[in-house]
Write a structure and sequence with these properties.
The chain is an alpha+beta fold and 512 residues long. The protein has two domains: 3-200, Hypothetical Protein Pfu-838710-001 (Beta Barrel); 216-511, CHAD domain. The protein has helices at residues 21-26, 54-57, 97-102, 104-107, 171-182, 193-200, 211-215, 221-244, 250-267, 274-310, 320-343, 346-360, 372-395, 401-421, 425-428, 430-468, 474-501, 504-511; strands at 3-13, 34-49, 61-66, 72-78, 83-89, 113-128, 134-147, 154-164. The chain has an eight-stranded antiparallel beta barrel. α16 (430-468) packs antiparallel against α17.
């Protein structure tokens, strides 16, 4: 059984033991009424990582700690800024399976072994506001570290940490920071005890291949594309634990990262060798497909539930809400099982290895060394031309199944065109941003249409099941009609949306 919390903290070099002037500065911080000493405690933590320090390389830590109020296993995952998420599990002899799974996207299945032991004597002070409200916790740690490899190396230091109290205003940290700097206390150069322990015991920083630095020309098209690829790979790695824990919107964001990666690897085949990237694209398509059921079911359930809730009560005949709820529960359980099966599969681990190799040893082609202004517009315009062909074809069709299919294909082309602009926005500027924005608006119209197509199919199946159970079918027919009307409205909006996205000057500015 695990539990998690968000911690926001800053580390500082510890002041000299005989210097207490900084304490007086803290009581002058706006909002801090008193600084109360809480005593000291002894902590003993053993940090686990892979042989090549993959967790540390991804700014994550896994430790087993005894002593203190929160003894147990702690997996810390990075969040933006000074924050991290700490997932805790009770003390046990071995790494809990839940934490091992949450670390999997970073370890990629490599064995986890003890690397460093860190023992600390910690003194704690609380920074209190009005009515003894806890604003922050200040700790000074006297640290002794030892490496746990073939040889033992010792290191010792003292450090200070300020952690924001739960529910407190984050501005408190800035005010405390200002007071400490006024007293001559500077921020620590290391983000964690593990990072400093690795350095001072000689284990060193995480060992990663350096082939990339030798290949990539700074400011080139290859540099721009790889920066975007890095972002999406990091998104996948970071979102994996959230998907496993079934956090809100995690599956959606995970699938978006998959699609963006697939798209950029397709669009920029002149930059990255497709002999390497095409197999990765196929595996990303497989992964996105395995998670599609979870996301699609979530979106559809929300849409249908909203339709029912918006209907006048006198038009909701029979156990419509109950049938929808039963369908939702059953579908969610099946989709959840399929998602976890995919994330726990050897195939997924192989994909993670392939993505790591892609970022560390990129298969750059000769054109990757060119300036972004020459190589990138061509890739964007190819996707744009494919989109134009799809939309033109759809606009020639009458309403019906063929049009539904054509609009779905146009929607997928719109996503590819939009994603193709994203790596280029830093170098191409406004033309790429404007085109991406216009195509996104078109994509929304097409997406709403496709959601209606999927909803109608589900409503028909619900109506058949209700009829077989002897329930009224009136409401299901009513909802089906509403979705038909919504689809017709999107079809009516399409020409204007395409006209805005296909203005000649947008294309011309990008091609310059």
């Amino acid at each position: 059984m695990t539990q998690s919390k968000r911690e926001t903290e800053r580390k500082y070099a510890a002041p000299p033991a005989d210097d207490t002037a900084w304490l007086r500065e803290l009581t002058g911080v706006d909002g801090v009424v008193s600084v109360v000493e809480r005593g000291s405690e002894d902590l003993d933590a053993v940090y686990h990582d892979t042989e090549d320090l993959r967790l540390a390389g991804a700014s994550a830590t896994l430790r087993r700690r005894t002593g203190g109020h929160d003894a147990g296993w702690h997996l810390k995952l990075p969040l933006p800024g000074d924050s991290r998420e700490e997932v805790q599990a009770p003390v046990s002899p071995t790494i809990p399976d839940d934490l091992r799974a949450l670390a999997l996207s970073r370890t990629r299945g490599a064995p986890l072994t003890p690397v460093v032991r860190v023992r600390s004597t910690r003194s704690t002070r609380d920074l209190l506001g009005r009515d003894d409200e806890k604003l922050a916790e200040l700790t000074v740690d006297s640290v002794h570290a030892e490496s746990l490899g073939a040889t033992t190396t010792l290191a010792a230091w003292t450090e200070m940490e300020v952690e924001l109290a739960e529910g407190a205003d984050p501005a408190v940290l800035d005010l405390v920071d200002k007071a400490l700097r006024k007293s001559g206390i500077e921020r620590a150069p290391h983000s964690s005890k593990l990072a400093r322990a690795l350095e001072e015991t000689g284990l060193g920083a995480p060992r990663l291949p350096d082939a990339r630095a030798e290949k990539v020309v700074p400011g080139s098209a290859g540099d721009e594309v790889l920066r975007y690829v890095d972002e999406q790979v990091r998104a996948l790695v970071d979102l994996d634990p959230a998907v496993r824990r079934d956090l809100p919107d995690a599956v959606h964001q995970f699938r978006v990262a998959c699609r963006r990666l697939r798209s950029v690897l397709r669009s920029y085949r002149s930059v990255l060798d497709r002999a390497v990237t095409d197999p990765i694209r196929r595996e990303l398509k497989w992964l996105g497909g395995e998670l599609a059921e979870a996301r699609d079911h979530e979106v559809l359930a929300e849409r249908l539930r909203g339709r029912v809730e918006a209907s006048p009560p006198e038009l909701v005949l029979g156990p419509v809400a109950a049938r929808l709820q039963a369908w939702h529960v059953a579908g969610t359980a099946e989709a959840r099982r399929r998602t976890l099966d995919a994330l726990n599969s050897p195939r997924y681990l192989a994909l993670l290895d392939a993505l790591a190799a892609l970022t560390q040893q990129p298969p750059l082609r000769r054109k990757a060394a060119r300036k972004p202004g020459k190589a990138m517009p061509r890739a964007i315009l190819k996707e744009y031309d494919r989109l134009a062909a799809r939309v033109t074809h759809a606009l020639e069709l009458p309403p019906g199944k063929d049009l539904d299919v054509a609009l779905h294909e146009a929607r997928k082309a719109a996503k590819k065109a939009r994603y193709a602009t994203e790596p280029a926005r830093a170098s191409l500027g406004k033309p790429a941003k404007r085109l991406g924005k216009r195509v996104k608006a078109l994509q929304k119209v097409l997406g709403d249409h496709q959601d209606s197509v999927v909803a109608r199919d589900s409503l028909r199946r619900q109506a058949v099941a209700a009829h077989a159970a002897g329930e009224p079918g009136f409401t299901w027919g009513l909802l089906y009609g509403q979705e038909q009307a919504a689809a017709a409205e999107r079809e009516w909006e399409l020409p204007a949306a395409w006209a805005r996205a296909s203005k000649p000057r947008l294309r011309k500015r990008l091609a310059r």
